[in-house]
């Protein structure tokens, strides 16, 4: 099943003092990312309790010179919404350095614009932000550039919780 499978199997003692075999199995209403196989004198329901606790959903945008990834985290359930690769030109020296720098800046600008547009597409539903908070991560200055960009939707800018530098 898409959301996993919960199976409880064991012997219980009824009110009359008799032993009764019990088999309970179902698919949880949300994805469960826990695997637990135990022989014990009780049924362990902690993983199911976690599903009921946190409904806060956080958005992630991870971007570097190779591409960007959009994802969400809700409780212990993570989901990659979209990712794409990008080919950005490297710095060049010599007589053409200024021309290359101009082309490089233009491609970086287009990359940040594409990320900003996709962020609005994934994290806005009916003109409302659909995540509790947004975390921008990555190497280089792309995350800072995005957070300060006019192209990045103001409603999303107010939800940015943290900028995280991810080093190799």
From TrEMBL:
Chain segments annotated as transmembrane: none
Subcellular location(s) per record: Cytoplasm
Gene Ontology MF annotations: translation release factor activity
Gene3D superfamilies according to UniProt: eRF1 domain 1, eRF1 domain 2
InterPro entries listed in its UniProt record: eFR1_2_sf (IPR042226), eRF1_1_sf (IPR024049), eRF1_2 (IPR005141), eRF1_Pelota-like_N (IPR005140), Peptide_chain-rel_eRF1/aRF1 (IPR004403)
Any single Pfam family the record assigns to this protein: eRF1_1
Domain eRF1: 57-168
UniProt keyword annotation of Cytoplasm present: yes
One Gene Ontology cellular component: cytoplasm
Keyword Nucleotide-binding: no
UniProt keywords, alphabetically: Cytoplasm, Protein biosynthesis
eRF1/Pelota-like N-terminal domain ranges (all copies): 1-52
Subunit structure, as described in the record: Heterodimer of two subunits, one of which binds GTP.
Protein family per UniProt: Belongs to the eukaryotic release factor 1 family.
Protein's name in the database: Eukaryotic peptide chain release factor subunit 1
Lineage of the species this protein comes from: Eukaryota, Fungi, Fungi incertae sedis, Mucoromycota, Glomeromycotina
């Amino acid at each position: 099943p898409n959301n996993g499978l919960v199976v409880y199997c064991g012997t219980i003692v009824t009110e009359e003092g008799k032993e009764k075999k019990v088999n309970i199995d179902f698919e949880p209403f949300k994805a469960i990312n826990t695997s637990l196989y135990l022989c014990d004198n009780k049924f362990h329901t902690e993983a199911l309790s976690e599903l009921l606790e946190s409904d806060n959903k956080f958005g992630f945008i991870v971007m570097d010179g190779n591409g960007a990834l959009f994802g969400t985290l809700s409780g212990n359930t993570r989901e990659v919404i979209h990712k794409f690769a990008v080919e950005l030109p490297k710095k060049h020296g010599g007589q053409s350095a200024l021309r290359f720098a101009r082309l490089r800046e233009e491609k970086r600008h287009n990359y940040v614009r594409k990320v900003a547009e996709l962020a609005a597409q994934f994290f806005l539903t009916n003109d409302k932000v659909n995540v509790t908070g947004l975390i921008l991560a990555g190497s280089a200055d792309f995350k800072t550039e995005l957070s300060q960009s006019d192209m990045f939707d103001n409603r999303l800018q107010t939800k940015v919780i943290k900028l995280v530098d991810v080093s190799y």
